[in-house]
Amino acid sequence: MRALVISGGGSKGAFAGGVAQFLIQEAKYKYGLFVGTSTGSLLISHLALNKLDKIKEIYSSVDQDSIFNNCPFLIRKKHGAEVIAINHWNVFKNFMKGRKTFGESENLRYLIRESITPKEFDFLKQGDMDVVVTVSNLSLNQVEYKSINDCTYEEFCDWIWISSNYTPFMSLVKRNGCEYADGGLGSLVPIEEAVKRGATEIDVVVLRTEVNYLNRMPVRNPFELITTIFSFMLDRIENQNIRIGKLVANQHDAIINFYYTPTVLTTNSLIFNKERMTLWWKRGYLYAKNKNEETSPIDPEHQE
Predict the structure, then answer these.
(1) What are residue 128's phi and psi, to 5 degrees?
(2) For position 81, what pLDDT does the model report?
């Protein structure tokens, strides 16, 4: 069984969408399993449905207002670069309402329900493909994987939303007596889960460069410090996930094909810029095309 795994990465998910478009439309790979974390969770249902134009349109038009009903930061341009600063008023409003996070992402929840219809959900659930999203259970201190086969429509949409909630900047969600947050806090690249579910060949889209080219500038405010610390932690989690994934795949004789971003796309994946994300989608498609052209020709018998 062939699987597609897409890591977390916020706005960089547009690049993963481009890679997936090539693999599904041009390489004609047939996937029996889709596993995603965070932005990967937002993509995989549409990829499984082969609704590539639909998800491309979403990633080409989304902005901050599409995600946040209360955005905790401001985006400013300084010396031609985008920097973020805390929106004190919005954060204050959130705390006054008794919220536990700096911002709220209810708009993303509505967007997910608008983009995935009950009819599409039923089609996927009745099919032979499995679609799995990753969430972090903060109360039980464990990672959980939610399969479409085990959920109702409302539950699955909410798990996708929860998987994408980059706390403490986005919503913290309580379900079944437990608090849940972004799946990337525990499993940013869920290769191991794909192998455990029976995948023998896995295409993995990792939304960072294979080699670290980034030397971060000194932080300018407490908000930047928090985002920098989180980025550092997620990089460590990502490296660990990849190492463990390779080990488990080797133990089960599974093949892994990695698709990293060839360059640093952004230093802050919470900034959703329409023009930039449209470009990243195209770059992802061309990168996957060039990578596959460099390898041996596609064998039709190898696609199943």
Answers:
(1) -100, 10
(2) 67
Exposed (0-12), middle (13-18) or buried (19+): which is 6, by Cβ within 10 Å?
A: buried
Cβ-Cβ contacts under 8 Å for 183 (sequence gap 6 or more)? 8, 37, 38, 41, 133, 134, 135, 136, 143, 162, 163, 190
The whole-angstrom separation of Cα 237 and Cα 279 is: 28
* Residue 89, both tokens: 């008023």
Collect the ranges in the chain with pLDDT lower than 70. 79-81, 213-217, 295-304
**Which structure tokens are listed for 253?**
């004789």
Q: Is 39:12 a contact under the CB 8 Å cutoff?
A: yes
Residue 219 three-state SS? coil
Residues in the chain: 304
101, two tokens: 């996070």
Which two structure tokens, joined as six digits, stand for 211?
Answer: 């080699």
- d(CA 37, CA 270) in angstroms, rounded, equals 15
